[in-house]
């Protein structure tokens, strides 16, 4: 698929440190999950390279933070324009290495680029405050300054957007960045870095270090232990988030963590069922169920349970599964075998405990899994507690509103949640009762660049996107001026 790139020079396989492409001491393979074929071998960087990148970022910091907000804004805007000008190529690289359908990949390019556009604008709004003085001889102010060298560690499910959502506000605020992309999807990240150079982001301000699994752990340790790195933003599993938090304790590092979810999707008796089915399809099966905001547990009220399950299963059965470059494919491969095994384990466990398969249920040849719906799910099943991260929808039955709220909140996670109701009182009651950072009401897709994305409980710390997303990358400083 990569032979079809309009601009083949976007296919970079070396690392970017201090504006130079670096081969690295060793290389690792990047494969196409649809075909299993090797796409490229990519520089595999280790701890010494991470130290070099951090030093380069730190050296580039004074000049970058000294630019005016408008100067940084103009450069970021150019990066946005270039990302959009190369939307098709970036989408092609993404589908090749990640598997999501080409249309979805192009959609992610637009979504990922939108953070660059948004924070290019927000760069000009990092405002301070003046405060009333407590003494006529003094004047009090608050200024907001860039925090310093920022590290980003990102996952494979959104190979571009998870990078831009961190990097754009950091750059806008005046911080340099060192990025460690997911080992399964470094090519999209490298193409975006090449476009950052073309946009005029100076050497050292944006560094990108691909690394295999073992080196990712080693590089993560260097980020955490470094006194120069002032902030780490991570998106990935709760397990790795905990490791990074523990490793960051000695340097008391500021952290933004966007971790796992276990999203409930509740359909009340008074819901518009057709709309709920559409929302459920989008929320569950986008990216083959591999997003942290994908609905993981469907709770449907008794009165509409059978109707919802029948309509939902019929639509799911009609899905075309296959290589993301094929016309009409709505569900691509899963990212790796381990992901397929987890879906199969959750489905088998549900069936063993009385669940009824109403769509799918099986692995397909290659790295594909049938889009699956299991009715009569119960609280003792694995899928009630664990995030499946795949195309499996267990549907639980409930009777009362309180029962649904209690079940929805019965998890250590608190990222996204969804519910469908046309009753205005219920909308407020349930919206306020759900212990989640985000609630979709009568809608299955909620993310966009100008809203605060993030979770509560063990789903993480901090918010990304919106004007709040800039807060991570600036420190407040109080200035007290005397002798007026
Ligand atoms: P996922 O389950 O989405 O693959 P992970 O949390 O395993 O999520 O990985 C997300 C990112 O974290 C990837 O870039 C991966 O290389 C990186 N990573 C995994 N383990 C560690 C670690 N111990 N320290 C630092 N980064 C890590």
UniProtKB/TrEMBL annotation:
N-terminal signal peptide: none
Pfam families: Aldedh
Molecular function terms, GO-annotated: succinate-semialdehyde dehydrogenase (NAD+) activity
Presence of keyword Transferase: no
PROSITE patterns in the cross-refs: ALDEHYDE_DEHYDR_CYS (PS00070), ALDEHYDE_DEHYDR_GLU (PS00687)
Presence of the UniProt keyword Nuclease in the record: no
Active site: 258
Name used for this protein in its record: NAD-dependent succinate-semialdehyde dehydrogenase
Record lineage: Bacteria, Pseudomonadati, Pseudomonadota, Betaproteobacteria, Burkholderiales
